[in-house]
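tokens incoming
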């Protein structure tokens, strides 16, 4: 595969990822608003939200592996098209059963598309620039979740004020637009993206008897464990963050949304620079430092006594997480042979999604139990608001990940000394 094709692949995949993630950010808010508008019960809304992650986890564990044998391009095109259609139809859903079915389909499409696209992006760039490209890739996620919600609000207002649609019917507008973005991504992938065979693919191909050994290395277990822990920690606190800010500081939804926007904007500042830096120094050093600060950020939120402290620690945590993520994913890609990359990346993302399913369930229970209590921490007399307990647990889980990263880094250093 020519170098020009690989570079074109990388940029087109970034473009497709960007427009899909804008729609993804939009859906993060509007799927809940739509479910509430059609008068679903809280339990039904929770199921509609959770089933997406369940479906995504299952599909990520199964379908991307097929791309290792049949090629990634075809799998990605099919997943993007199904995502576009199912997202469009969501705007017309008016019953719990219809929403549930479409969210299952949409989750399966997302679980297929993201690991397949990431594997193809990694296939398309050199190992020397992998960190920088992963930084660009995750920048599309950060930017999408900044732009998406605001764009959704504009489109919804356009439906009610300009098109004079009833509130329920106005939901059709943002969902159709999101589906249209998915369709654009599908068309661009068809026209400009190809499967890639690189020198790395040849030297690490399926004829190499070490492939199965790579999948079964301690790293694979470590990657899966970190995936579950990371997904669980995020799932534990993100859904209850709004409740926490409302109960403790009496903030309204607009102000809370502004906090998310600021933290997302801050993340944009570190994705690419940190990824690029990981191409020049030991990737796991960046991962370890980032994981330490990300865990401490959540712990800082738990013990915060003022709004400004919460905002600072939350932004601090988001920046730390987004700083180490490109380096960590680039390191994973370095260790996974290209011919099984879809399978392994899919399983790693499935582990993350599994944690993302379990986290909100336990987080809600913990928050409800502690929300209106003062909790002492190790030293009696030192207390903090009980609603911060999920953040404390999430921070501890983050620190556990640090020890796993240190173990991996130690193994890598020992291997380098043996060469």
């Amino acid at each position: 595969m020519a170098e020009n094709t690989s570079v074109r692949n990388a940029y087109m995949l970034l473009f497709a990822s960007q427009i899909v993630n804008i729609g993804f950010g939009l859906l993060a808010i509007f799927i809940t608003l739509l479910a509430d508008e059609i008068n679903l019960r809280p339990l039904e809304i929770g199921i509609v939200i959770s089933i997406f992650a369940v479906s995504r986890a299952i599909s990520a564990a199964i379908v991307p592996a097929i791309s290792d044998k049949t090629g990634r391009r075809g799998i990605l095109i099919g997943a993007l098209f199904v995502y576009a259609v199912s997202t469009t139809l969501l705007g017309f859903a008016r019953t719990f059963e219809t929403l549930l079915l479409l969210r299952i389909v949409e989750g399966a499409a997302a679980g297929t598309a993201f690991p397949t696209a990431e594997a193809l992006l990694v296939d398309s760039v050199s190992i020397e620039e992998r960190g920088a490209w992963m930084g660009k890739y995750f920048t599309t996620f950060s930017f999408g979740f900044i732009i998406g919600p605001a764009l959704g609000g504009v489109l919804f207002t356009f439906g009610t004020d300009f098109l004079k649609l009833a509130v329920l019917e106005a939901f059709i507008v943002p969902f159709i637009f999101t589906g249209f973005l998915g369709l654009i991504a599908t068309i661009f992938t068809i026209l400009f993206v190809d499967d890639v065979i690189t020198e790395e693919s040849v030297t690490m191909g399926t004829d190499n008897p070490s492939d199965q050994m790579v999948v079964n290395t301690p790293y694979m277990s470590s990657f899966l464990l970190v995936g579950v822990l990371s997904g669980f920690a995020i799932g534990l606190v993100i859904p209850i963050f709004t409740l926490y800010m409302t109960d403790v500081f009496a903030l309204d939804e607009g102000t809370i949304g502004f906090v998310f926007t600021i933290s997302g904007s801050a993340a944009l500042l570190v994705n690419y620079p940190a990824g690029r830096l990981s191409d020049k120094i030991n990737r796991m050093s960046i991962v370890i430092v980032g994981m330490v600060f990300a865990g401490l950020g959540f712990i800082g939120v738990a013990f915060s006594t003022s709004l400004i402290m919460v905002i600072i620690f939350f932004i601090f945590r988001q920046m730390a997480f987004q700083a180490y993520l490109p380096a960590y994913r680039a390191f994973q890609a370095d260790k996974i042979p290209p011919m099984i990359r879809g399978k392994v990346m899919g399983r790693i993302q499935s582990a993350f999604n599994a944690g993302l399913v379990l986290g909100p369930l336990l987080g809600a229970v913990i928050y409800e139990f502690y929300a209106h209590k003062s909790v002492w921490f190790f030293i009696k007399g030192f207390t903090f608001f009980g609603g911060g307990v999920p953040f404390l647990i999430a921070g501890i889980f983050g620190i556990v990940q640090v020890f796993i990263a240190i173990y991996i880094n130690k193994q890598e250093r020992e291997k380098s000394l043996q060469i």
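note: Residues 199-210 have pLDDT under 50 and may be disordered.
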